[in-house]
Amino acid sequence: MVVELKPISIDNWYDCTKINVKQERISVFPAPIVYWIAESKFVDDFELRAIYSEGLLVGFIVFCKNPDGGW
Q: β-pairing, 56-64 with 3-7?
């Protein structure tokens, strides 16, 4: 199985917004993906990646390049 992490781009951002968190995880991840995409435009330390398995979009991650954040 090939897993790839690709930057969010004009080609995949909308498909990422269609990904939903499982109901049992909504308390941990309450914000929709479109929120993280918008937030990343204003917070320089946020990095977003689309997760692909065998060429199919299967997930999304957001992480901070600077874990201390300064905020």
A: unpaired
Q: pTM value?
A: 0.82
Tell me the domain boundaries of the chain: 3-64
pLDDT in tens, 27-52: 877 888 999 999 888 888 889 999 99
The CA distance from 51 to 12, in Å, is 11
Distance CA 21, CA 25 (A): 6
Q: Distance of CA 32 to CAs 21, 25, 59, 68, 70, Å?
A: 8, 12, 13, 23, 24
Give the dihedral sign, CA 17/19/48/69: positive
